[in-house]
Design a protein that fits this description.
mainly alpha; two-stranded antiparallel sheet; globular
Length: 259
C-alpha cells in the first residue's frame, strides 16, 4: 500500500503540471504515454520480441493519428490513413510468408486504433479547456474511490467474477454515486455552461463507461494471462492499468459532444 501511495504521489507531481500547462508539453507527454501503452499491449500478445517492420509501421500510424486537429494533416485524411495501414499490415502477412499472421495483423490494427483514439481525445479534451480534462479525471478518480471503499465495506454480489473477481455490484453503484456527487461539486465550483441535470447525467455516463473500460482491460489481461499491463508504475502496474477507464470514456465524450 505504501508503494502504491508513493507511486501515485510521484505520478501526480509529474502529470499535473503538464495537464495544467497544456499546449505542446502536454501533447508530447500524451505521445509518450500512448507509445508506452501500445508497447504494453503488443507485449501481451507477442512477448518481448516485437516484429520489427509492422511495429515501425504501427507506431508511425499511431503517432500520425495522435496529431491534434489544429495541425494540418499532410497528403491524406485520417480515414485514408487507416486504409493504408490495413493494406500495409495485410501485405506484410504475404511478404513474411505468414510468419506475421492475419491474427497478428488484426490484433495490431485493433490495438493501435484503440490506443490512438483514446489518447487523441485526451489531447482534444485538454484543448477544449482545463475544466474539461479535470472534470473527466475527477469523475473517473471518484468512481474508482467510491467503488473501492463501498465495495470493501458492503460488497457481496460479484459484478463479473469471470473477468474481475474482486469487483462487486455494490462497489460499482458506490462509484456511480460518488462520481455524481463530485460532478455536482465540480459544477458548483468550476461551472460549465450546462444545467446541473446535464452534469449529473454526464457524470453517471462517465462513471458507467469508465467501469466498462476497466472491465475490458481486465478481460484482455486475463485472456493473455497477465496480472498487469506493465511494471512502469510500481504498485500500480502499467500505463494501461491506470488509464484503461479514460481510454473508453474520452471517445464517448466526443460522441455525445461533451468535448
Amino acid at each position: 500500500m505504501k508503494q502504491r501511495i508513493l507511486t501515485a504521489i510521484i505520478a501526480l507531481i509529474i502529470f499535473v503540471p503538464f495537464v495544467i500547462y497544456g499546449n505542446w508539453p502536454f501533447v508530447l507527454l500524451t505521445y509518450v504515454l500512448a507509445t508506452i501503452g501500445w508497447l504494453e499491449l503488443m507485449r501481451m500478445r507477442l512477448g518481448r520480441t516485437l516484429i520489427l517492420l509492422p511495429s515501425i509501421i504501427a507506431l508511425c500510424f499511431l503517432w500520425m493519428m495522435l496529431l491534434p486537429k489544429t495541425v494540418s494533416f499532410p497528403l491524406m485524411t485520417k480515414p485514408e490513413l487507416i486504409i493504408i495501414f490495413v493494406m500495409l499490415l495485410l501485405a506484410y502477412t504475404v511478404l513474411s510468408k505468414n510468419k506475421f499472421t492475419f491474427d497478428d495483423a488484426s490484433f495490431m490494427l485493433l490495438a493501435t486504433i484503440y490506443i490512438s483514439m483514446g489518447f487523441y481525445f485526451l489531447i482534444q479534451a485538454r484543448m477544449m479547456g482545463l475544466n474539461y480534462i479535470l472534470f473527466i479525471l475527477f469523475i473517473i478518480w471518484a468512481t474508482d474511490t467510491g467503488a473501492y471503499f463501498l465495495g470493501s465495506a458492503l460488497g457481496k454480489r460479484k459484478l463479473w467474477p469471470k473477468i474481475s473477481p474482486n469487483k462487486t455490484i455494490e462497489g460499482a453503484l458506490g462509484g456511480i454515486v460518488l462520481a455524481s456527487i463530485v460532478g455536482v461539486i465540480f459544477q458548483l465550483i468550476y461551472p460549465f455552461n450546462m444545467s446541473m441535470l446535464t452534469i449529473i447525467i454526464v457524470s453517471i455516463v462517465i462513471s458507467v463507461v469508465g467501469q466498462i473500460g476497466d472491465l475490458t482491460a481486465s478481460a484482455y489481461k486475463r485472456h493473455f494471462g497477465v496480472k498487469d499491463s506493465g511494471q512502469i508504475l510500481p504498485g500500480h502496474g502499467g500505463i494501461l492499468d491506470r488509464l484503461d477507464s479514460l481510454l473508453f470514456v474520452l471517445p464517448l465524450m466526443y460522441i455525445i459532444h461533451f468535448i
